[in-house]
Amino acid sequence: KLATECVYRACVELVDPYGFERSKDFDYESYEELMSEYLVVLTRRSIKWSKLLKGKRKVQKNVKLKRYVRKGIPNEHRALIWMAASGAQDQLERNPGYYQSLLRAEHDPKLVETICTDLNRTFPDNVQFRKTSNPCLQKALYNVLLATGYHNPVVGYCQGMNFIAGYLLIITKDEEKSFWLMEALLGRILPDYYSPVMLGLKTDQETMMDHNVMWTLVVSRWFICLYIDILPVETVLRIWDCLFYEGSKILFRVALTLIHHNQALIQQAQSLPDVCQNFKQITHGPFVDECHTFMQKIFTEPGSLSMATLTKLRATIRSRIITEELGPTDPEN
User: Which InterPro entries does the entry link to (predicted)?
Assistant: First the structure.
C-alpha cells in the first residue's frame, strides 16, 4: 500500500495546477482514479471549445454557449468567457485607463491598512501568494482590492473579498481583468452582498428559508465566499463558470443540491455543533470531488429554478427586510 502511494505521489504533483499545496492526508490514489476519467472529459470539451471559438476574442451569449459553459470551460478559455459573459469585457473597453487611474489616486490609509492586514492571510497554502514566489500575486491582489475599494466606496473592502480576488488572479493572471470581474460580481451579479448592511446576502438567506432551508448561518458562509474553501477548487471553478454566465441563481442550485442530496444526514443533527459538523461533512467526498457529475446534478436535483421566480421572491423578501430594519417610512436607500 505504502509503495503504491509513493508511486502515485511521484506521478501527481505536491502542488495542484492552481498553486495550492496538497494536504498531508491527500488521497493520491483516489485522485489519480478520478482524474483519469475527468481528463477524458476535459480533452473532449477542449476540442469542442476550440472549434466553437476558432481563435475569436469575442463571443455572444446564446443557447449553445450556455450549454457549453454548463459542461465546463477549459482553463485556457476561462478568462475570455468570464469576461464576456459577465459584461466585464465591455466595461474594460468602455473605460480605458480607469483601473490605472484608481491606483494613482490618493490612498486612504484606513483602506490600505485593512487590505494589508488580510494579504498574508490570503491562501497561505498557495505557493503563488508567497513573498518568495516570482511573480508573487500578493502585490497584484493588493492593487485589485485597492482599486475595488476606491471604485465602490460604499463597500470599500470587507473580509472575503481577498479570496475572491485571489481566485480571479489565479485564473486570469491579469490585474485589470480581475478588477472588472470583481466589479461585475459586486455591482451586477451579487448586488449588496458586501455592502455594510449586506442587504443582498440577507435577502438570499431568507429566500433559502422560503425553500425550507433553515440552516441559513451555514449557507450564508457558502454564499459570501462563493464556495471558496468549502468545495474543491475544480468544483468551485465549474460553479463560477455558470455564475458569471447565468448569475446568482447558481449559488442556490449548488446549496439546494448539497442539502437535498444529504437531507437524511442533516436531519440527524440534534444541536448546532452537530449541524455544523454535518454541513462540513457534506462538502467533502466523492459527490463534490467528481465535479462534472456534480454540475450535472445541480441542474436536475433542485428542479426548476428560474431567474424570474427568484427575482420576484427576492423583491418581496427585500421589501420585508427593509421594513423590519429601517422602518416602513424610511426610503430603501
Answer: Rab-GAP-TBC_dom (IPR000195), Rab-GAP_TBC_sf (IPR035969), Rab_GAP_TBC_domain (IPR050302)
The answer to whether residues 148 and 157 touch, using CB atoms and an 8 Å cutoff, is yes
Phi and psi at residue 126, to the nearest 5°: -110, 120
Q: Which residues is 20 bridged to in the sheet? A: 126
The C-alpha cell at 279 is 454541513
pLDDT digits (tens, 9 = 90+) for 132-174: 888 899 999 999 999 999 999 989 999 899 999 999 999 999 9
Task: In whole angstroms, give the CA distance from residue 73 to residue 76.
Answer: 8
Among the ranges given (124-128, 183-187, 211-215), the one the predictor scored with the smallest mean pLDDT: 211-215
Q: Which among 228, 291, 301, 226 is positioned nearest to 258, based on CA atoms?
A: 301
Look at the chain and count its residues.
Answer: 333
pTM: 0.88
**How far apart, in whole angstroms, are the C-alpha atoms of residue 256 and residue 260?**
6
DSSP 185: I
- Higher pLDDT: 311 or 10? It is 311
Cα 89–Cα 93–Cα 99 angle in degrees, nearest 5: 90
